[in-house]
Amino acid sequence: MHIFLTGATGYIGSAVLDAMIKGGHRVTAIARDPEKAEKLLAKGATPVIADLGLAKMYVPLLKATDAVVHTAYESSPCGVQVDQLAIETMLAAQREATAADGKSRAFLYTSGVWVLGRTVRAADEDSPLDPPAHVAWRPAHEDLVLAAASTGLRPAVIRPGVVYGGGRGIVSDLIKDALNGIVRVVGPGKNRWPCVYDHDLADLYVRILEAPLAAGIFHATDEADERVSEIVEAIAGQVPQRPDIRNMPMAEARKKLGTYAEALALDQKVRSPKARALGWAPSLPGVANSVARLVEEYRNAQREKNE
Ligand SMILES: NC(=O)c1ccc[n+]([C@@H]2O[C@H](COP(=O)([O-])OP(=O)(O)OC[C@H]3O[C@@H](n4cnc5c(N)ncnc54)[C@H](OP(=O)(O)O)[C@@H]3O)[C@@H](O)[C@H]2O)c1
Fold it and tell me: Which residues are CB-contacts of 43 (< 8 A; sequence separation ≥ 6)?
């Protein structure tokens, strides 16, 4: 397949790019920075310098592709607006191309499990949503994507758990903090985080792309139901010197982190039956049980960055 990828330089997008290239797919990927574009080229993608917010820089490219995989997200006060406009513009371009050549096209959107809010029972893809303020905007973007099914496209919304592996993301930040001697936990840490290994998540994107009928919502979680305290304890036990672990009271966390604090404090159990129905199975059994490997991956990523 020929795939148009946004966010290829990011945490999720770079893992997805690797999996697509490994799967023998052709990838056109946008990058904002020429140096990062060079790295995409070295990985086997065709880079295009473009900004998500400037659709005319990249929308003409969509006609020649079979699928769009959207993993980019601009972390700025305009992020939500930029995301909405990018989704609308890319879907419109795909619709136009499909109307012209009759070929159906896939659109994969990256959401997240936080839209589910606190889950009393284990949630699946049909569970009701209750997003905390931090991601209150996200269900509308999911709906925008899913509605494209009625226009001849094949839309899929992927909701990853907290991604782990390599040198980026929330779990890597905990590893970095532990190596630096102090780990801060939002609240008591008794809440469960649904998590997913970056390579496993990337494998799911490729499976969805390659399954002609795969559409709708897909959760991506390893189903280990780990409490934050277990994750942090495992990391603390793996670094050379045990770090201080400090539980930040919620009021302080809200002051420091804003709405992000509520998201980090969510207690969630999330299942991924639709992904499993595609033959997907997580290769790692959660963070705590893989911690030696994850600390090693973090160190390798730091070494590569400094080379
Ligand atoms: N990481 C997780 O644990 C996790 C879990 C669930 C859901 N998600 C969601 O998944 C999405 C991606 O997350 P991530 O962790 O991969 O984020 P990330 O590492 O920050 O990557 C963001 C990507 O978007 C690109 N980007 C940002 N603004 C852009 C713009 N204006 N034009 C073009 N590209 C732009 C970045 O490019 P540059 O390299 O140029 O900055 C980068 O490639 C987000 O919506 C996030 O909420 C993440």
Answer: 17, 18, 21
- pLDDT one-digit tens code per residue, 28-45: 999 999 999 999 999 999
CATH number at residue 39: 3.40.50.720
Domain holding 134, by residue range, is 2-164+196-223+268-283
Interatomic CA distance for residues 105 and 156, integer angstroms: 11
pLDDT mean over 254-267: 98
Number of domains into which the chain is organized: 1
Q: Is 85 in the pocket of ligand 1 (CB under 6 A)?
A: no
Residue 108 lies in a domain: yes
Is residue 121 in a domain? yes
CA gap 213, 23 in Å, rounded: 18
Q: What is the pTM of this model?
A: 0.98
Determine whether the shortest distance from the Cβ of 163 to ligand 1 is under 6 A: yes
Query: What is the atom index within ligand 1 of the atom nearest the CA of 168?
Result: 19
**Spacing, Cα 87 to ligand 1 middle (Å):** 14
Tell whether 106 is covered by a domain.
Answer: yes
Q: Give 130's pLDDT tier (boundaries 50, 70, 90).
A: very high
